[in-house]
Specification:
The protein is of the alpha+beta class and 306 residues long. It folds into 2 domains: 139 residues, no CATH class; 147 residues, no CATH class. The two termini are 22 Å apart. Strands 1, 2, 3, 4, 5, 6, 7, 8, 9, 10 and 11 form an 11-stranded mixed sheet that branches. 49% of the residues lie in helices and 17% in strands.
């Protein structure tokens, strides 16, 4: 591959990787806006009367979480989940919960906290919780007066209690095991807006399609840009499979570098960390699409040449 072809390939991969990262950040921000406007509940949240263990056992995949209210106003709640991925909430300062933690809290900007030797703490009754983050995407958010604690002991009574079960198809799955009468649907939504419910999915679908077509274009471009060189190498006795493997390895290396650059820049600009598993999955899909388009184009050219 010539220097010009490498530069064009790197520029195209950088462009479409940046678009993919922008779509991921946009989706993450929209989900955070929805959670903030809906008191940290998703559209699938339902009311159940059960223990936390019974409620979470509905999903073996660990994609559910439960809430219980600690005060009548609903601004002080406890949360439990079997997966750390379900403990992520919108914060504008600090961090969200981590797997295995207990005795920690997320609080709004108007909640009174006390300063301790190791950080800030909030007092709830006789218990003190370390504050690890501030709820809401900005300081004066709809969650400014809320307190959310991560304390499994608050769910260990062993007796059924009113819980909010939240997660994909939470009501359907719980009703499938315990009957429809055991589930009560509710909504406190204040953020069910057109740009979230209708426009956002359309933007994500069209954007994903554009990214996929861009990766296909990169693969087809490579097959045409390297056609003459590959033909010469083949006439010199170099197997076509070896030539293609070398080229794919080079393109994969370029893709890794461009993805790393996009991840660093997007993290710096959006203040949002890109999870390594998401980055790896995106890079794997990108490599597969580019390689598939390249091999298909090369095979068609090889057949035409023969």
């Amino acid at each position: 591959m010539t220097v010009k072809s490498r530069a064009i390939c790197a520029l195209l991969l950088l462009l479409f990787s940046a678009l993919a990262a922008t779509l991921a950040i946009y989706d993450s921000r929209q989900r955070a806006i929805h959670l903030e406007g809906n008191s940290l509940y998703s559209a699938d949240a339902v009311l159940v009367d059960a223990t936390a263990a019974q409620a979470l056992a509905v999903s073996p995949d660990g994609d559910l979480r439960v809430f219980t209210e600690l005060t009548s106003g609903g601004t002080v709640r406890a949360v439990a989940a079997s997966s750390s991925a379900r403990l992520s909430f919108p914060v504008h300062a600090g961090r969200t919960f981590r797997s295995g933690e207990r005795g920690v809290a997320l609080v709004g900007s108007r909640v009174v906290v006390s300063q301790g030797a190791t950080g800030e703490f909030v007092q709830l009754g006789e218990r003190s919780y370390e504050v690890v983050g501030r709820l809401g995407l900005r300081e004066n958010s709809l969650l400014a007066n809320d307190i959310l604690v991560l304390d499994p002991d608050l769910f260990d009574s062993g007796e059924p209690q009113p819980l909010v079960l939240d997660g994909p198809d939470a009501g359907t799955r719980y009703a499938g095991l315990h009957g429809a009468a055991s589930v009560e649907h509710f909504s406190t939504a204040t953020s069910r807006r057109t740009n979230i419910d209708v426009v956002s999915p359309l933007i994500l679908v069209l954007g994903a399609a554009l990214v996929a077509m861009g990766w296909v274009f990169v693969g087809v471009f490579l097959s045409f840009a390297t056609r003459r060189r590959n033909l010469v190498l083949h006439l010199l006795g170099v197997p076509r499979s070896l030539t293609r493997l070398r080229l794919l390895a080079e393109v994969t290396a370029i893709g890794i570098v461009t993805a790393a650059v996009v991840a660093v820049v997007s993290t710096f600009l959006s203040k949002t960390d890109v999870p390594l598993d998401v980055l790896g999955a995106g890079l794997l899909v990108q490599s597969a699409v580019v390689a598939g388009a390249f091999l298909l184009g090369a095979a068609r050219q090889g057949g035409a040449g023969a």
